[in-house]
Automatic annotation (TrEMBL):
<keyword id="KW-0812">Transmembrane</keyword>
<keyword id="KW-0418">Kinase</keyword>
<keyword id="KW-1133">Transmembrane helix</keyword>
<keyword id="KW-0808">Transferase</keyword>
<dbReference type="InterPro" id="IPR036890">
    <property type="entry name" value="HATPase_C_sf"/>
</dbReference>
<dbReference type="Pfam" id="PF02518">
    <property type="entry name" value="HATPase_c"/>
</dbReference>
<feature type="transmembrane region" description="Helical">
    <location>
        <begin position="169"/>
        <end position="192"/>
    </location>
</feature>
<feature type="transmembrane region" description="Helical">
    <location>
        <begin position="204"/>
        <end position="225"/>
    </location>
</feature>
<keyword id="KW-0472">Membrane</keyword>
<dbReference type="InterPro" id="IPR005467">
    <property type="entry name" value="His_kinase_dom"/>
</dbReference>
<dbReference type="InterPro" id="IPR011623">
    <property type="entry name" value="7TMR_DISM_rcpt_extracell_dom1"/>
</dbReference>
<keyword id="KW-0547">Nucleotide-binding</keyword>
<feature type="transmembrane region" description="Helical">
    <location>
        <begin position="261"/>
        <end position="280"/>
    </location>
</feature>
<feature type="transmembrane region" description="Helical">
    <location>
        <begin position="141"/>
        <end position="162"/>
    </location>
</feature>
<feature type="transmembrane region" description="Helical">
    <location>
        <begin position="237"/>
        <end position="255"/>
    </location>
</feature>
<dbReference type="Pfam" id="PF07695">
    <property type="entry name" value="7TMR-DISM_7TM"/>
</dbReference>
<feature type="domain" description="Histidine kinase">
    <location>
        <begin position="387"/>
        <end position="589"/>
    </location>
</feature>
């Protein structure tokens, strides 16, 4: 929305010649004059010299103006201004319309016929030449101060815009620029310095500049108070009023009346105050400054200036054009305060966000330090385990050498082969302990029949000692897995089943969609649901056998290795009915 308003504002200077041509064609060239009389009384002859008086009309220009002097039954024409009169035809080259008057002694009457915008009344003042010069100098001083303040605020806003690239500052510049153009026009400076030979355009310019002020003001309000998000209905109502402005201009061009445009301004005023009050209620940054500026605009421009120009209501001070200057200056200062307040809040939020980021960075640094400390401790423990594994390799090698001294007969060869396989498996485990987690175990195709045969050979002595039957169901299945990892998992499960079973342990394979399951069945005491999670923790043994053989690590190792390898682990058991441990290995896609 703000970007669209900015584009429209930038188009206004290019449209001015077209608008001027349309206004010159559509504006009524003639119309009834409004007449007023100003009785004056001068001193006796010789006490008042000719040219000692200046008649100030209190307006910057007029569509038509006739001034005559009535004295002792005689009338004398003093001034005629038509819609085609340029600035050079003025009796006094000043921004505000004025003329010198030579008054005869005694009682005279100045009769003025005029036609202004929307039948605006004149602000007639008859001053001495010295008094007029003093008034003119004071007025130029005030206008210069006003211009300097507006230019300073515009420059500061431009610097903020180029530094922050925030559209609010550019819309503020556009609003202040249009206000300056409007105040310069109603103050007579536009006709005096910019287009002295274009009286027709000079009559239309104040209305167009006022429309530009409203347009920029609306865009600034919507952007500053975030009405697009916070109050979409209020924003639409404002846009509807703006959409009706062209119709008001059309009525002005055809009839010369400002009533429709004034009515739209009256409708816009409560919406402006409602927007400010809503923003204050919602805690929008700068809303209080905006509301103060809007109140000044309503008081000095919409009410005082509108009543003086359109309704002819006499105002304190006598100069009706002083009120829009005060109103717009106070509003611009308040809007600058609103922008400064928004910047203050934004900086405070940025500082808070920066502090939070610093806190997060410090916490991250502490977490990294803790992680490094944990890794160092884990590395130290890994080195200790590796050293222990290295030391264990020595007695294992001694056992292997001792086997060579056994008698070379059939029974001993079978026992030696079994012991060799057990020592090979033990050596693999020690090697894995030494290597740590530096490389993942090799995943190769495995023939489960061979794995089952080694398992049966390795656990048959334990089954015989417990007088239990160990049965491995024949299979031809093959899987993709690490032999070492799968062997460690099944060794722990079969060892536990033989330790806690009563009479038999059965191991077999089931084929499922998408995976292959290896099941270990036993007829032991079973595991209750409440005990199942407890047994998966390290150093916990089942069946209340805390002092039994083992360390309480078997199920924990099975769970950890299964999770690392992507295997599924399922435990089905009922107290007194035995247990079933299932390892599910996903099938590789063909």
């Amino acid at each position: 929305m703000a970007a669209g308003m900015l584009r429209l504002l930038t188009m206004i200077p290019g449209l001015l010649p077209l608008v001027f041509a349309a206004a010159a064609i559509a504006s009524p060239a003639t119309g009834p004059l409004r007449w007023t009389a100003l009785p004056v009384e001068t001193a006796a002859a010789g006490e008042a010299a000719a040219g000692d008086f200046v008649l100030s009309f209190g307006v910057a220009d007029a569509e038509a103006l006739i001034v005559r002097l009535d004295h002792d039954g005689e009338s004398r024409l003093l001034l005629v201004q038509t819609p085609d009169s340029g600035f050079a035809t003025r009796p006094i080259a000043a921004p505000m319309l004025a003329m010198p008057v030579q008054l005869p002694p005694g009682i005279s009457t100045l009769v003025i016929g005029y036609r202004l915008h929307a039948d605006t009344p004149l602000q007639l003042r008859l001053r001495t030449a010295a008094d007029y010069d003093h008034w003119q100098a004071t007025r130029h001083l005030l206008d210069g101060v006003l211009l300097g303040l507006f230019v300073a605020m515009i420059l500061v806003a431009l610097l903020h815009f180029f530094a922050l690239r925030s559209p609010e500052y550019l819309l503020y510049v556009a609003t202040c620029g249009m206000v300056l153009a409007f105040l310069a026009q109603i103050g007579g400076y536009g006709f005096m310095y910019l287009w002295p030979e274009a009286p027709g355009w000079n009559q239309v310019a104040p209305i167009l500049f006022m429309g530009g002020v409203q347009l920029a003001h609306l865009a600034f309000t919507i952007r500053l108070l975030d009405l697009r998000r916070r109050a979409p209905l209020l924003r639409r109502a404002m846009l509807l009023i703006v959409a009706a402005v062209p119709a008001g201009f059309a009525v002005f061009f055809l009839t010369g009346t400002l009533a429709p445009l004034f009515a739209l301004s009256v409708l816009y005023t409560p919406l402006l105050l409602i927007a400010g009050l809503g923003a204050v209620r919602d805690g929008v940054a700068g809303a209080r400054f905006f509301l103060a500026g809007a109140a000044a605009l309503v008081l000095f421009v919409n009410l005082a200036f509108g009543a003086g120009v359109v309704g002819g209501v006499p105002l304190p001070g006598g100069d009706v054009f002083l009120y829009p200057k005060l109103g717009y200056l106070i509003e611009a200062a308040c809007f600058a305060g609103a922008l400064a307040d928004r910047l203050r809040v934004a900086r405070a939020q940025a500082e808070t966000a920066l502090r939070l980021r610093l806190i997060d960075a410090e916490e991250l640094a502490r977490a990294e330090a803790g992680k490094y400390q944990a890794l160092r401790i884990a590395h130290d423990r890994q080195l200790q385990l590796a050293a222990s594994g290295h030391d264990l390799a020595q007695p294992l090698q001694s056992i292997r050498l001792a086997l060579t001294a056994m008698r070379d007969d059939e029974d001993n060869r079978r026992i030696r082969a079994h012991i060799d396989r057990a020592l090979d498996l033990t050596r693999l485990m020690i090697d894995e302990l030494i290597q740590g987690a530096r490389r993942a175990p090799a995943v190769l195709p495995l023939d489960l029949a061979e794995v089952f045969e080694d398992l049966a050979e390795r656990h048959r002595p334990q089954a015989a000692a417990r007088r239990m039957r160990l049965r491995m169901v024949p299979t031809t299945a093959r899987v993709e897995a690490s032999q070492l990892v799968l062997t460690r998992i099944l060794d722990n499960l079969i060892g536990n089943a033989l330790r806690y079973g009563r009479s038999r342990v059965v191991a077999g394979v089931r084929h499922r969609p998408g995976f292959l399951s290896i099941e270990i069945h036993d007829d032991g005491p079973g595991i209750s649901p409440a005990e199942r999670d407890r047994l998966l923790a390290p150093f916990v043994q089942g069946g209340g056998q805390a002092g039994a053989e083992g360390f309480g690590l078997g199920l924990h190792i099975v769970q950890r290795l299964s999770a690392q390898s992507g295997f599924g682990l399922d435990i089905r058991a009922r107290p007194g009915r035995g247990s079933v441990f299932t390892i599910s290995i996903p099938r590789k896609p063909r």
